[in-house]
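Recall that a protein's primary structure is simply its ordered list of amino acids. Everything else, from secondary elements to tertiary packing, is in principle encoded there. The following example makes that idea concrete.
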Amino acid sequence: VVRPQQREFVKEHFKATVRGEQVSPYEFSYKRAAQDIAWAQISTTPIKKDGRVVGVLGVIMDITKRAQSEEALKESEKKYRTLFEDSRDGIFITDKTGILTDVNQSFLNLFGYTKEETKKLRAIDTYVNRDDCITYIKKVQEQGFVEDLKVKLRKKDGTIMVCRVNGTPLRGPDGAIQGYQGIVREER
């Protein structure tokens, strides 16, 4: 039942168990009777008698739902990452202290920084008037969002540009703000 592309992998693990080796649990996919693909996790232990392997004890657990959920999550993350990276708007994410933790290529193009440089950059340092950044944070905290906040921002080379900023908070499981995310567009 093991799918052809994984047969050698499963066979090698089984042989190792028969040789008396302790093998870590492993996962493989197989075809069910209905011809759909399922996933299993197997744990095997050699059964020894007088120092000789006389059998193998195996426990197989169906992990199909978990595997399908993980695959769906990967697909969702891939779609999000594509949307994030391909956006023509500058997108930013900061931690709660305002340090940029992620930005897209449009943000880098707009401000003239490299990805590495932004990891040491605080968002407030891009504002011409630091009070505008404080206004942004207050609005996000009070309203739960900022929409089209007009601000002056500074590029790496010192050039000042007029921009519109939109943003929302990033909240942790407890509801506390852990950072901020948003979009910045230069007015032309």
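The mean pLDDT is 92. The longest strand covers residues 37-49.
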